[in-house]
Specification:
about 45% helix
């Protein structure tokens, strides 16, 4: 079945296919509030911003899987300044998304102020908050003084926070790391500076920028930041399971938990974490649900106008653990259309049934 078309395409796809994937058939809005504590109180498990991943289809899957709300991938304030339509494509939510958090990056306070004003004007009441990225460790970002490089320039970072907070009517938050290098763990002090400048919440990843994503995230850093500021802290780093998400909230003293790589092929991680937080048994996801979720995600890609090559990564994530997974991943690399991916899923389902995995 081809993907639905039109303004309500994603909503129609959810209504038609979400139940068979164990996902919500419609998306509930987050609370409308300027109080980040209240915003996180109803659901502390959030889909983190991920460059090259957090497109509209991915956000819709996360929300259907129980995320409290979802973030765009990081958006360049310079791109907005120069009126780049490709940049705006990263910002504008799909029709069926009830709300969204937008993450901005850059180094020019005036461009941040301009971008914050423009984003709020374009998104209206769908905009929950604006987050400033001070965590990205990628050299092409940091060499311009952006991302985690701002942790080495707290005066400019504070000026950026003041610029954003003074230019929009939604909360301004920041995402930081432990520090730039392992010899300078500055996160608690830096977080205090950002709160003094107007940050309504702080997300902290427990690695240094120099680590990228190597080694283990240090939850002690997250706990130190949570103890240093009087605003909500969102923990980030190595939240690869529902249990890890719950531990970030219950064990690290955080008001919320970012889930990034833990969402790969697992949109249910949010509802599973909520169940664990309530003391309930974490549901077991069947192979049929996993394949149905993959098919829904692929359909959502087409409905939102994304390039279908993105589904190749999705295949690798959703098909982990199926018989002959490596060969199926190789097959996915030759798929170019929705129908190609749906046929692939049908063939995987048949092989799983032959292997007696249809209900496991």
């Amino acid at each position: 079945m081809a993907a639905a078309k039109g303004a309500d395409a994603c909503a129609e796809l959810l209504a038609t296919h979400a139940a068979e994937a164990g996902l919500a058939p419609s998306l509930d809005p987050a609370p409308r509030t300027h109080d980040v504590t209240a915003l996180l109180g109803s659901n502390p498990f959030l889909m983190a911003p991920m460059a090259g991943v957090s497109d509209a289809a991915y956000r819709v899957m996360a929300r259907a899987g129980g995320a409290g709300f979802a973030y765009t991938e990081m958006v360049s304030v310079a791109g907005i300044h120069f009126s780049g339509e490709k940049t705006w494509e990263l910002v504008i939510p799909d029709e069926c998304e009830p709300d969204i958090a937008v993450q901005l990056f850059g180094s020019d306070p005036s461009q941040f102020a301009e971008a914050a004003t423009a984003v709020q004007k374009r998104l209206g009441n769908k905009l929950l908050l604006i987050d400033v990225n001070m965590a990205c460790p990628v050299p092409k970002v940091t060499r311009k003084g952006e991302g985690s490089a701002l942790m080495g320039d707290p005066d400019r970072a504070a000026e950026i926070v003041r610029a954003v907070a003074g230019s929009c009517d939604v909360p301004t938050t920041v995402k930081i790391r432990a520090g730039r290098t392992a010899d300078a763990m500055v996160a608690p002090e830096f977080a205090r500076r950002m709160v003094d400048a107007g940050a309504a919440a702080v997300a902290v990843h427990g690695r240094f920028a120099s680590q990228f994503y190597r080694g283990e995230s240090d939850r002690g850093v997250v706990e130190a930041v949570a103890g240093a500021v009087d605003v909500p802290v969102i923990g980030s780093g190595d939240v690869l399971s529902a249990r890890a998400a719950v531990d970030m909230v219950e064990g690290a003293g955080c008001a919320g938990s970012f889930v990034a790589r833990g969402t790969y092929g697992n949109p249910w991680i949010f509802s599973d974490a909520r169940a664990l937080l309530r003391g309930e048994v974490q549901p077991r996801r069947s192979m049929a649900e996993r394949l149905a979720a993959f098919c829904l995600h692929v359909r959502l890609l087409e409905a939102t106008g994304a390039h279908m090559a993105r589904a190749r990564s999705l295949a690798g994530w959703y098909l982990r653990g199926v018989p002959n997974a490596s060969s199926w991943r190789a097959r996915a690399m030759t798929c170019v259309s929705v129908d190609d991916y749906l046929r692939l899923a049908d063939e995987v389902a048949l092989e799983c049934e032959r292997a007696g995995l249809g209900c496991d």
